[in-house]
Amino acid sequence: MLTAPEPVIIFDTTLRDGEQSPGCSMARAEKLRVARALAELGVDVIEAGFPAASRGDWESVNAVAREVQGAVICALARCNREDIELAAQALREAPRHRLHVFLATSAIHRQHKLNMAQDEILRLAVDAVRIARDLCADVEFSPEDASRTELEFLAQVVEAVIDAGATTVNIPDTVGYTVPDEFAELFRYLRKNVRGIERAVLSVHCHDDLGMAVANSLTAVVAGARQIECTINGIGERAGNCSLEEVVMALKTRATFFNVSNRVQTTKLYPTSRLVSSITGQPIPRNKAVVGENAFAHESGIHQHGMLKHHSTYEIMRPEDVGLTRSHLVLGKHSGRHAFRERVQELGFALDELEFNRVFEEFKALADKKKELFDGDIEALVLRAEGHAAGPWSLLGLRTVADSAAPAEAHVRLQHADGRVVERSARGDGPVDAAFKAIEAATGIEASLRKFELRSVSVGEDAQGEAIVYVEYNERSYRGSSVSTNIVESSTMAFLEVLNRIELSQTSLRSREERAGGARVQPAAV
Ligand code: KIV
Ligand code: ZN
């Protein structure tokens, strides 16, 4: 007979390990949106960042700690007093918070990275946990590269940090090296050989270098782990981390096998995954498990026939369980507010009346241009409305002329929040290049375009195109995105969003420098 399911803690590190990966960095306002979505999704712990990494990181963790309710807010620190105190200060306003300290333990890291002997590592780890415990009752310790650490030494470290007051001990497979059987054995070894192991929650943290992060995390749960560290869409260092949506759906779909429970509301998985993808500009592969476009699509005749007889023939999860509804063809210009509101809710978005009215207006404008609106169109409208970076500049008009025999021309008309209306024309290598040059001339901000991506967010001849631009300015990277049926317009809006961010961050930098009496201040993310 089955015993009652034991709770397993879902620890999300999208904003720390996820954000650390190339191309995934987020501005403070974006981190707040993700943190709010994670709290609504029902994760237990949100690792909001690494405050000692930069002033911007400290401010983001602090903003999440102040403004996001419903989850424990956690911050990462190295094993030194300065890092730990910075993290504790950033977290102090969160009603429930956790300090997460880490130190590498493997021979490879000891020798090549830290140049430290085992006893030094042991002492540093214990001291750090004690410092953290003086500041916070909830302390997690991670022996980095645990899966490549000598078993006896790992057990010694784990025992010592629990004695020093660690309430959670996390076992990272930092480089994604382990395999399920070996990793389960490691957890069993620790449970058998560490005195006092029952006083701490055992946690698992896996990377996906060999594509086994989810499998290794699940096997750790079978072997006694009661916290899983994961990220939305599996984003993270190198090949990424254990994907939250996959691990949670595996626990749900095979509930009798795993016999553990968690608080995640799986119907919010799909909208949360789309939100993170739209903010980071990292597309979700079509064949991605659980949230990919093809995850519930059935193409072959035999499969379609089986599905028509009974969905369980080829479907182990229901699309609605992850927040995906079956209908793809949705609304058009004759659809009313009621139908639109229902569709927005079915897609998992909760908008207040003001936001809803704004999105509905945009929906009507789009429906005038586009015959049929698909789920992707509606998601793009809502995500754009939620994330609208209100900047000083707005676009009043854009005209472009593209001629295969001559340089393209663009004319833009922009309005600044201070009331100025500025018009500029420019020539370029194609209409997008010309529009970017005209915008630079109008705003007076010259930025270096590093990368430019275009992708379709819906289907059909009149599908909307999302433009994502990556720009560098004063040694800082910025990213902006926008969606429209006209790709020159979406590209121009995305570029303008970036220049708005640059202007906002320059203004805030100047005022902080003035307050600091002219001293140079490190730029903070806006
Ligand atoms: O992968 C890793 O080892 C980490 C630790 C900081 C937990 O991210
Ligand atoms: Zn990691």
The 3D shape can be described as globular
Ligands bound to this protein structure: 3-methyl-2-oxobutanoic acid, zinc ion
Distance between the termini: 55 Å
Average of the residue pLDDT scores: 89
Q: Can you tell me the CATH topology of the largest domain?
A: TIM Barrel
Strand content: 15-25%
Helix tally equals 18
Low-confidence spans: 521-526
How many beta-strand runs? 18
Helix content percent band: 40-55%
> Which structural class best describes the helix and strand composition?
alpha/beta
The CATH homologous superfamily of the largest domain corresponds to Aldolase class I
CATH architecture of the largest domain: Alpha-Beta Barrel
> For this structure, what is the CATH class of the largest domain?
Alpha Beta
Q: How many structural domains can be distinguished in the coordinates? A: 3
Question: Please, could you describe this protein's structure?
Answer:
It contains 18 helices and 18 strands. It has helices spanning 14-18, 28-41, 55-67, 81-91, 107-114, 118-135, 151-164, 180-193, 213-222, 244-253, 255-258, 269-280, 301-309, 337-346, 353-369, 375-387, 431-443, 487-515; strands at residues 6-7, 9-12, 45-49, 72-78, 97-104, 139-144, 168-173, 201-206, 227-230, 260-261, 329-331, 373-374, 393-403, 406-416, 421-428, 448-456, 465-473, 476-484. The strands form five sheets. The chain has an eight-stranded parallel beta barrel, surrounded by seven helices. A three-stranded antiparallel sheet has the order 13-14-15, covered by helices on one side. Helix 3 (55-67) runs parallel beside helix 4 (81-91). It is globular and about 75 Å long. Mean pLDDT is 89; it is low at 521-526. The structure holds 3-methyl-2-oxobutanoic acid (KIV) and zinc ion. The site of zinc ion has 6 residues, from loops.
